[in-house]
Specification:
With about 525 residues, this protein is of the alpha/beta class. Strand 21 and strand 22 form a beta hairpin. Helix 11 packs across helix 15.
């Protein structure tokens, strides 16, 4: 399939944006309630902060000025607030980098959040209060209670936390309903497992069950999971996490309950194919998708160590928000390893929007494709690259997306050791592939010293390594290398008058209809 890495101008003009449901900017009481102004002021005053950064989700930026004005009036000049106009990475992550540029003391995060533990700043989360039809929700829960047996675990989008908190406090449902809780502190939960910033009670992972000998994982294998929220990366993460459970979702936007069914085996085949590509890869890009998630530097060092032990060349990429068009500029990279928060790791599996699917159905189109088809190279997560290259790690039913669980002290940490070079046949290309290092550390050190010698290229007057094949060599083999200066080769000319007008039609320029057809 050939995919052009450019956007049609017609689609850009006709694109419709779905704006998050939020209060009207001119309704002061609604703004105070939706954005929890009173709670925010109390938190700022209790912490005695002097500089507070306000980070808004993209869909909420239109209310940023109004919220800023109300907060400043309530704080009476004792604290200076400022708005972060754009996020470095995803809107769900706390942007500590931008806050650091303005010497902030704390951050107030508005909207959807991944709840990744931060390392530098205290954070106050304001999720908002998206509307939900409680009567439809109650009817859906009662229907589910009558259809399934055993306990039902309820997980939800953080923007519906206000409703779930109310339902749990009122004990509106049967004792079979078990609510997950948001982990808003850095304390290790004692009454459940931590997943996606939520404390999951009663459901113990297979590794933890084997460790304490309780066997709880087997006892809860028939449990049911209910997700409250609309389809997106968050729901996809829970579906893959609890793929061996009955999984239902309630969509507040349509007030419908449905059973989610995915072909988990097909998903694993796609991911195993990408892992096999990792064994064939020569150049791997470490794609940094977060700079606020705790442990991202440690996992970066762990990935560097693993790739070095397997004889892979790696390069760092810090390009902000990720899209196919940015990554397509690096054709020399065989695949990327995405280091990001757990909510952003499924960028390679993100579905097309429901609105676009409805438009395609109206047009009679039967095509269904993932955004992953637009990416020029595969995108793996650290857990997958470890499965591919760490010989000590074995596949289990757990699919780990939390970076901290792969680090020393985590539930799924497996130490990797440098192994001698091994050869095998690639399942994709059928060619011989090698994994590991050929020489010991002393020999490798001597080779690195020799490799740093500089060699002069007579044709391009460039400096390169005397040994090895790098991405720079790949660049030299390209027929087009970008804009070249060609100093001394271009003939000098006098200044002349340029064109007048706009790009769509300069003065004196003939239109396409006026040009004769030969």
């Amino acid at each position: 399939m050939t995919v052009p890495f450019s956007t049609n101008e017609k689609s850009a003009l006709e694109r419709s944006l779905t704006e998050a449901t939020k209060p009207k900017a001119n309704d002061l009481n609604q703004l105070i309630d939706y954005y929890e102004i009173n709670e925010t002021v109390e938190w700022i005053q209790h912490g005695q902060f002097s500089q507070v950064a306000l980070q808004f989700e993209d869909a909420l930026l239109s209310d940023a000025a109004s919220v800023y004005k109300i907060l400043n009036e309530r704080l009476n000049g004792k604290c200076e607030c400022f708005i972060l106009g754009d996020t470095t990475f995803g809107s769900c992550c706390v942007d500590e980098v931008a806050a650091k540029h303005y010497n902030a003391d704390a951050i107030v995060h508005y909207g959807d959040a991944c709840l990744s533990q931060t390392a530098r700043y205290p954070v106050f989360y304001v999720f908002g209060k998206l509307p939900i039809d409680e009567s439809s929700l109650d009817a859906a829960v009662e229907r589910l209670l009558s259809e399934v047996e055993g306990q039902i675990l309820v997980v939800f989008d953080v923007r519906y936390h206000h409703c779930m908190k109310k339902k749990e406090a009122e004990r509106s449902y049967s004792d079979r309903i078990v609510f997950s809780k948001l982990a808003l502190t850095h304390e290790t939960p004692q009454d459940g497992a931590l997943f996606h910033g939520r404390v999951i009670p009663h459901l113990v992972t297979p590794a933890a069950a084997a460790a304490d000998g309780t066997g709880t994982a087997e006892a809860t294998s028939t449990s049911t999971v209910l997700f409250i929220g609309d389809e997106g990366p968050l729901m996809l993460s829970f579906v893959y996490k609890y793929g061996n459970h009955s999984f239902y979702s309630f969509s507040p936007s349509s007030s419908t309950l449905r059973k989610e069914s995915i072909n988990f085996n097909q998903y694993l085949k796609k991911r195993f194919y990408s892992m096999e590509r990792a064994r064939d890869a020569r150049f791997i890009g470490l794609l940094i998708g977060t700079m606020s998630t705790e442990g991202y530097l440690d996992i970066l060092e762990q990935m560097k160590k693993l790739l070095t032990e397997n004889g892979k060349k790696y390069y760092y990429f810090l390009i902000g928000k990720i899209n196919p068009y940015k990554l397509a500029n690096f054709a020399e990279i065989d695949l990327f390893v995405l280091i990001s928060c757990p909510q952003s790791v499924h960028i390679h599996e993100k579905k097309l929007s429901q609105q676009k699917q409805r438009q395609e159905q109206e047009q009679g189109s039967q095509r269904r494709e993932d955004v992953s088809e637009l990416f020029f190279q595969p995108i793996l997560i650290p857990f997958e690259i470890e499965l591919a290259l760490n010989s000590n790690r074995e596949w289990s039913t757990e699919y780990v997306t939390d970076l901290r669980q792969l680090l020393p002290g985590g539930c799924y940490y497996v130490e990797s050791k440098a192994t001698k070079r091994e050869s095998s046949v690639s399942l994709i290309t059928g060619k011989l592939q090698t994994v590991g290092i050929e020489k010991n550390e002393e020999e490798l050190g001597e080779e690195e010293e020799q490799d740093t010698a500089l060699q002069r290229r007579s044709d391009a007057w460039a400096l390169s390594h005397a040994a090895g094949y790098t991405a720079a060599d790949f660049l030299q083999s390209r027929t087009w290398k970008g804009v070249e200066q060609r100093l001394g080769e271009s003939e000098s000319t006098t200044c002349v008058d340029g064109r007048r007008g706009i790009a769509s039609g300069y003065e004196g320029e003939s239109t396409q209809e006026e040009k004769p057809i030969k």
